[in-house]
Sequence to fold (303 residues):
Amino acid sequence: MADLSADLGFRTLKNPVIAASGTFGYGEEFLPFYDLDVLGAIVMKGIFREERPGNPPPRLHETPAGLLNSIGLAGPGSAALQEIIRRLHARTPVPIIVNVCGGDDDEFVEVAALFSGMDEVAMLELNISCPNVKKGGACPAQDAGHTSRLVKRVKERIRKPLIVKLSPNAADIVGVAQAAQDAGADALSLVNTFLGLAVDLEARRPVFANVYAGLSGPAVKPLALRLVREVCLKAYVPVIGIGGIASGRDALDYILVGASAVQVGTVNFYDPAGAARIVTEIEAEMERLKIRDLSEIRGKLQA
Ligand SMILES: Cc1cc2nc3c(=O)[nH]c(=O)nc-3n(C[C@H](O)[C@H](O)[C@H](O)COP(=O)(O)O)c2cc1C
Fold:
C-alpha cells in the first residue's frame, strides 16, 4: 500500500489533495457527491469582512482547456462564513482552510484574526492577490515589500498555521515568495489565476465588464509548474502546487518539482467528484511506479 500522507511540517495531511479556493464553494455544495474526508483538506471560497455581491455577469468564459473567471470575490461576509464552517465541521472531519481576503491590510488582519479564533479551522490561507482598494487596485502579491509587511502583521495576530497564496502575475514571484517566508509564512501556495483577456469580436467589446479576467484549468499547468519549480528551488517552507491539475499524474508532477501538496480547482467544475478521483489516481500511479511514499519523489526532478 502506498503511503499518500503529505507532510507540511506543522501538520500532516492524509493525502496531498486539497480542494482549491473558489472552486469548491463552502464545501457543503460537494457533500452530495462524496465524503469530503477522503481529501487532504478543503479551502473555503475567499472571504472578506462584509458581504460582497461580486462582479456583474458574465463571470465565467471557457477557453480551449481553460476557464476565465471574473467573479469579483463575491461572498456572504465573515460572520455568515463562521456559521457555515460550524455546520460543515459538524458533518465532516476534513481539515478546513479559510482563504482570507482584504480590501486593505487592516481588513486582512482583522479577518485572519477572526478565523484564527475558530477551533473548526485548521489553517489560514492569505489571498494576497486581492486588489487593494486604497492603492488603486494593486494587490500585495505584486510587491515583496508589501507582502512582507502584511504577512508580519497577520502572523502577530493569529495562532494558526499561515499559508500565503502567490500570484503568477507578479513580476518576480520568487522574490515575493522569499519575502513571504522570511516574514513568517508557514507554507506557500501557488498559483492563483493568470490575468487574461477575452473579447467579443462582433460587439467590439471585452467579454468581461472588468476587461481582464483570471485564467485557470489544464491550459495553465505548464506555466504554473514552472513557477512552482522556481519557488521550490528557493523555498525553505513547504510549497503547495496549484494550476491545471486534472489527474493523479498531474498532481505527482507537482510533487516531483518539489511541492509537498497540491490544490485542485477548475476540475471541480467539470467533474464534481474530480478531487476524490485524483486521490485514487495518485494511489494507483504510486503503486504502478512502485513509489512507497511521496518523499521518495518530492523535489527529485533531475535537471
Ligand atoms: C471561479 C474561480 C474562483 C476562484 N476564487 C478564488 C478565491 O476566492 N480565492 C483564491 O485564493 N483563489 C481563487 N481562485 C483560484 C483557484 O483557487 C486556483 O488558484 C486557480 O484556479 C488555479 O488552479 P486550477 O487551474 O486547478 O483551477 C478561483 C478560481 C476560479 C476558477
The first strand starts at residue 6 and ends at 7. The chain is about 30% helix and 20% strand. Residues 10 and 161 are 7 Å apart (CA to CA).
